[in-house]
Amino acid sequence: MSxxxxxxxxxxxxxxxxxxxxxxxxxxxxxxxxxxxxxAQAHLRELxxxxxxxxxxxxxxxxxxxxxxxDVAQYPTHWQHDLILPYAELPSWQAxxxxxxxxxxxxxxxxxxxxxxxxxxxxxxxILNGHVDTVTIEPKAEWTRDPFGAAIENGVMxxxxxxxxxxxxxxxxxxxxxxxxxGVELRGDVVFQSVVNEEHAGNGTLDLVRRGLTADAAIVLExxxxxxxxxxxxxxxxxxxxxxxxxxxxxxxQNRSQVGVSAIxxxxxxxxxxxxxxxxxxxxxxxxxxEIGRSPFSLVIGRxxxxxxxxxxxxxATLRGGAYFAPVVGDVVDVMRAFREAVDAANASDPxxxxxxARLAFLHHDDSARQSPQMPVAMVMRERLQARxxxxxxxxxxxxxxxxxxxxxxxxxxxxFGPGTIAQAHKPxxxxxxxxxxxxxDYLIDFIFAWCNADAEPD
Length: 459
Fold this sequence. Notes:
Elements: H1 4-15, H2 17-28, H3 38-50, E1 54-58, H4 62-68, H5 93-99, E2 112-117, E3 126-131, E4 152-153, E5 156-158, H6 162-181, E6 190-195, H7 203-210, E7 218-220, E8 228-232, E9 234-243, E10 253-254, E11 257-258, H8 263-282, E12 297-306, E13 316-325, H9 332-349, H10 351-355, E14 359-366, E15 369-370, H11 376-387, E16 394-396, H12 403-409, E17 414-416, E18 431-433, H13 434-452
Parallel strand pairs: 3-6, 3-7, 7-17, 8-16
Antiparallel strand pairs: 1-2, 2-6, 4-5, 5-18, 8-15, 9-13, 9-14, 10-11, 12-13
């Protein structure tokens, strides 16, 4: 197929920088915190309909996801009610119903939006996947610009979601816009997915997998500085409740026997066991070429809370944290089991905890994803990047994302590729370099044209 129409689309994109930037600004100005994605999704639906796409609007079906994917389905989350339903083994629809929290943890008014652009036939199909939800703007006082103002200064746009990941979502939509306006006919289908609740759940993409949406390859448009990643770590959010026995100073000791036990005294026992788990995972250097020189396991202890009064031993203390683990470490269910064993070992090592055990629970879990750097979608993107002066290096992804569901649950070869940087995610004054955003549009135009007009693999 002639490259003339592709070049026409690139020319339109070059002449339309102001329009592309304005489209991103319009999306950033629509708040879409996790749980409140409906208005932004209605905006994207309107844009897709304007491009002539076949549009699917569907709220994720929570019981159906738990039935189909019991090991990876998560509770719905909402920024105002985030990670409020711990679980000891795996979450379940029945436990959500029994909790009484379903009225706030649901997808009512929070649909996925999918736009399907049908090809003429015979080419390779492609999914372009991105999430529209963002994290909270707190601490709001630390922002120096309006979180939803899309202010532009020195070639940088500020606002919640600019890097994570409205920049990627709009880069893909604008690439499709310029291809359509140039009259480019693609042989393969393109499926644009704007999903909800990627943050702390991933259920938006998981439900589209459940519904059977598939393709020959996928791009997850998370921020990578327009480089290619073919893997990402798994993750766990966890908490440990450590017990104590509340007593005032006058009753902490009875004769020479200790009666009052502060839960805070027992934190080092649990912390030591968790750090030993991290050391054990990191003791052997990984042989995977993508992981050489990297530590495969990273434990974060992020919060500690406990006690109610300075002169009473704390009756309970809670540790909360997270962990990332490389694909070489193993399955997420295996890592969860290792956490349980570590806490069991801590309890067994201490006489008080042996009788009054610390309790481990999980708040969220992600499986990891690992694919060959030589898979066709990565090779084609690398080639097109290099042809346009971009960085064609193929790397491991440093963060969990929805690629895991496309790869592990749907079996779709996928890469992570998008403008912006994960270093801007979840922080005040989040921003994106607009030159990088505009370059991503060009890269995607070139890639979509090359990928979708190549012959599809025979069934």
